[in-house]
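Researcher: Checking consistency across runs. Here is DUF1540 domain-containing protein again:
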Amino acid sequence: MQNPMERPQAQTSVVGACTVTDCKFNENHECHAGQIEVRVSSNGAECGTYSPEGNNRPRP
């Protein structure tokens, strides 16, 4: 049984798949950013790390 006074260890998460094909961190549907920021908007969760490759096209 875990001691209730001990803090649980931090868990490492990974991005399962990325479908934003124009992001410079997307390689074959895998995110290769060193870390990401996830934001909550009225449309749900969105990646705050998104950075378009090439020109500044609007986010899909």
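Researcher: Does this match what you'd expect to see?
Model: One thing to look at in this run: The mean pLDDT is 81.
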